[in-house]
From TrEMBL, chain A:
Annotated transmembrane regions: 7-28, 48-68
Source species, domain of life: Bacteria
Keyword Membrane listed: yes
Alphabetically ordered keywords of this record: Membrane, Transmembrane, Transmembrane helix
Name by which UniProt lists this protein: Uncharacterized protein
From TrEMBL, chain B:
Coiled coil: 392-419
Location relative to the cell: Membrane
Homology family: Belongs to the inorganic phosphate transporter (PiT) (TC 2.A.20) family.
Entry GO terms, CC: membrane
Species this chain originates from: Glutamicibacter uratoxydans (Arthrobacter uratoxydans)
Mode of membrane association: Multi-pass membrane protein
Protein name: Phosphate transporter
Highest taxon above the source species: Bacteria
Amino acid sequence: MIDWMAFLIVAIVTWVAALLIVAAYSLGVRLLAVAKDEGASVGLNKTGAYACFTVCGLIVAFGVILIVPQLSDAILGFSSSH
Amino acid sequence: MDLTLIVVLVIALALFFDFTNGFHDTANAMATPIATGAISPKKAVALAAILNLVGAFLSTEVAKTISGGIINEDPTGSSGVAIGPAMIFAGLMGAVIWNLLTWLLGLPSSSSHALFGGLVGAAIVGAGFDAVNYSVLLSKVLLPALCAPLIAGISAYLATKLAYAITKRSSGASPKRGGFRYGQIFSSSLVALSHGTNDAQKTMGIITLTLVASGMQDADSPVHIWVVTACALAIALGTYTGGWRIIQTMGSGLTDVKPAQGFSAEVSTASAILASSHLGFALSTTQVASGSVIGSGLGRKGAEVRWGTAGRIALGWLFTLPAAAVVGGIAAWITRAGTVGFFIVAILGVAAMLTIWFASRKQPHDHESNISDIDNSGAAVNILTKKERRAKAKAEAKAKQAALRAKAEREEAEEEKVDNA
């Protein structure tokens, strides 16, 4: 009766999502710090940093789309509702 | 007695529970970014309230678990007593009273588990053991209560390690981890959103259960939109009001959470709650957030667990469900007296709420009872500062040396003994 698969899904989704978001944001923070270094290319590093922050936002947006049945129907063409 | 009146009273109590939930739990999500100065209190509180509101509209999986799974509205057992709205009222009363009592006494507790405890207790007393679907209770409430904080804790631990590893500068330049402060606006918003999806849905489930039990709604039909809207508004209002209380007690001591660590913890909390909500797990959001705070604390250098504090928190969690079940059961037993019983429960319940409220106003709250359960759980991890770490390493080295010296002296003495002989 107990759906162990569901727990596994929650665990894997949580770990993958959290680590991806934290990794992307940390990389952004690092690039911002590097941009302040002497001799570093400010523009390039800052662009990279903001790209990382954008990736963060995209991951979250994707998660929300997956959760809301109406959105996943409209955008992804399928609904993962149970 | 008029069934409609009972249903209206149950809905009012359920919305009140939702409000206290927002007031008590969800406002905490914004505490960290306010404390680190990333966002002004006014904006933070408004943002949390709005996101709770939005979150409540995102999903109805948890509401379906509660309205259609845990309680058998029409038990097939020999008792033949169906779950009536009066019984749900009794269960809710049990939950509200237990919640207020633990709040007054400063005990760690969980609104969600109080809710389930109250309902289960009332159902068992009111309609017998057949009334509760134990396999759903186990797989959608009890096991998630154990697994989700653990999953979130492991996630926060790994994420904190990762965040520190990525931002570490080998050149010795400043890693500028303050940048995580702004990320915390974003991660706290996510936590507020996830609170809305899980906590507000519990009340939706209760109201839907009541409507089904009183024959006003089909058991298989989805949650009504007015129910969703009412619950979303109640939790958002609670969050907004509760936010001001948090701000007022802010100066009195949050656990020392660094921005990078807080960010990792909050992202983990939000991911775990959102994923669980989607699969219909009714979680205690406080417990998940506590798991993350402890996990992220352990991910920092020089962290040790204070097992005493951690054990006390776990014990409080264990107690919540059975204790609320007892209160709910007693209330259900009184409602069996019919209309008179129902009003006795209503009047006793309101009297208990007022008493607890007045008692809380008289008793000067020290800051310990004012800070949230999540912060309390942060105290379960002791993070040594660099200085303390160095002092500890020194002391350990000294002890080791002393032991070596003692050993050498002993051996020397023995050698002398042999020589003398």
